[in-house]
Design goal:
By secondary structure, this protein is α/β, with parallel strands linked by helices. It has an eight-stranded parallel barrel with strand order 1-4-5-6-7-10-11-12, surrounded by six helices. A hairpin with a 2-residue loop joins strand 7 and strand 8. The radius of gyration is 16 Å and the shape is globular. The chain starts with a strand and ends with a helix. It is an enzyme of class 5 (isomerase). It holds the Pfam family His_biosynth. This is 1-(5-phosphoribosyl)-5-[(5-phosphoribosylamino)methylideneamino] imidazole-4-carboxamide isomerase.
Length: 237
């Protein structure tokens, strides 16, 4: 299993939110590029970049994303507010390895199918989940579908992976939703990337035991609950 540090961008800063709540910002760092270089120096081989402002319609961090893509030194997957073909093409042209598509991919399956066919193996579908229900628009809007139902609807698409975030666990470091992740792994034809709740090495090993391909890490790295070098060494693939 691969461990991937998250760099969540808000107002030009690197932040960490608790429980997906924009009013509960627990970490704010002034230099996202330095943060990226720190994780690469620790041994991580991929980064997960998210433009929180774009995801919620509060603006964007496009120039900062461009800098991170070109200067991080490792492959990056980029998401947050990616809702049209032009944004996908621009990020790919700038050097992003994979593009994470959330809200529009969930709400407009025909559009997602078109984009996946245009860029096979380059799109990751992000499904943010409360309980088992998929939420969109920066965790603010509940859809009418459960996650396994969504996977089955889209299983023929040539996606690079499925990123599942347990929103109620996000930023709390109190353990992952293992039952959710196991069910998604069983249903998904694509590699599953887990996010939300990781606080210990045991959490990571439990995800790996359930067939999860990668885990996005946030709060546990930023608060040093996890030793970055140890994690990068053990979860390198």
């Amino acid at each position: 299993m691969l461990a991937i540090p998250a760099i969540d961008l808000r107002d030009g800063h690197c932040v960490q939110l608790v429980g997906g709540d924009y009013a509960k910002e627990a970490v704010r760092l002034d230099d996202p590029l330095r943060v990226a270089q720190r994780w690469v120096a620790a041994g991580f081989s991929r980064l997960h970049l998210v433009d929180l402002d774009a995801a919620t319609g509060r603006g964007d961090n496009r120039e900062l994303l461009r800098e991170l893509i070109t200067r991080s030194g490792v492959p990056v997957q980029v998401g947050g507010g990616v809702r049209d073909a032009e944004a996908i093409d621009a990020l790919l042209d700038e050097g992003a390895d994979r593009i994470v598509v959330g809200t529009r991919g969930v709400e407009d399956p025909e559009w997602l199918a078109e984009q996946a066919d245009r860029a096979p193996g380059r799109l990751v579908l992000a499904a943010d989940v409360k309980g088992r229900t998929v939420v969109t628009r920066g965790w603010a809007k509940e859809s009418t579908r459960e996650i396994v139902e969504l996977v089955r609807e889209l299983e023929a698409l040539p996606l690079a992976g499925l990123l599942v975030t347990a929103v109620q666990k996000e930023g709390k470091m109190q353990g992952t939703d293992l039952a959710l992740m196991a069910d998604v792994v069983d249903a998904s034809p694509w590699p599953v990337i887990a996010s939300g709740g990781v606080g210990t090495l045991l959490d990571l090993r439990s995800l790996e035991d359930r067939g999860v391909a990668a885990a996005v890490l946030g709060m546990a790295l930023y608060t040093d609950a996890l030793d970055a070098r140890i994690v990068a060494e053990e979860f390198a693939e």
